[in-house]
Amino acid sequence: MGIFSKLFGKTQSETKVLTLGKLAFLEVDMHNHLLPGIDDGSQSVEQSMSLIKGLHGMGFEKFICTPHIMEGVHPNTKSTISGAHSLLSKELKNSDSKVEIYAAAEHMIDDGLEALVKKDNLCVMPGGYVLIEMSYLSESKALFQTILDIHNLGYKPILAHPERYNYYHYNFDMYKKIKDAGCLLQLNLLSISRYYGTEVKVAALTMIKSGMYDFVGTDTHHGKHLAALQDVVTKYPVRDLLKTCNIKNPSLLDHLQEKDTIAVG
User: What keywords sit in the KW lines (predicted)?
Assistant: First the structure.
């Protein structure tokens, strides 16, 4: 190790070696913000390609891109998502990348989602999954009704990053109630570190120990997330840690077809 590595830690090339393929057991990153220019994630095709390159190095071959649909903030539609997906897919094809991307969405539980549910106009993942989220500030009173409504449409709801909802940290039974209502739970990989704070880490590790998670996502928005993920993969035995949970990411491969871009057309 050179003097600068000793002084400032691992070099970028050393980090790449240490993280190479470590997340390949997940096969699919089913929650990220890699589509360019349509939410608070990647802001350009170039940035998307850089993020994908980094995540691919950690072992991901396929990505289900889930931009926000959030009324008044990120008012995405099937059309805007499809356009960004086509743009990035074209660039991947031009670069001869073996990576495959698919399009769905992360739906905020708000009045806009209620309207999409009524029209059966959700952006659905392969396998019939629908990713939903709530505000970090307060619990949505419509959560359980939304779960029921999604089931009634024949889909399976997944609640994104439940460990990040601080209002549940002292009411842990709520996680069980959500699962009992038929909602699957998705872990943000960064939550097993202190990236979002100590309380989020404690909640995530407690839920992992209890075997409560069904899916894992990177929730990658930008380069800072990518660097933090590389750090997590270097420091934590992620695969061993998740053995207590029946992680379904690999099962998504059964539903992914080369030309299937999900219900965004």
Answer: Hydrolase
pLDDT of residue 18: 73
β-pairing verdict for 28-29 and 184-188: unpaired
For the range 191-195, what are the long-range contacts, defined as Cβ-Cβ under 8 Å and sequence gap of 24 or more?
191/161, 191/163, 191/164, 192/232, 192/236, 192/238, 192/241, 193/228, 193/231, 193/232, 193/235, 193/236, 195/228, 195/232
Residue with tokens 């998670």: 213
DSSP state letter for 157: E
Give the other-Cβ count within 10 Å of 180's Cβ: 9
197: left (phi over 0), alpha (psi -120 to 50) or beta: left
- Can you give the pLDDT at residue 7? 38
pTM: 0.91
Domains of the chain: 18-253 (3.20.20.140)
> Does pLDDT of 99 surpass 50?
yes
d(CA 156, CA 255): 14
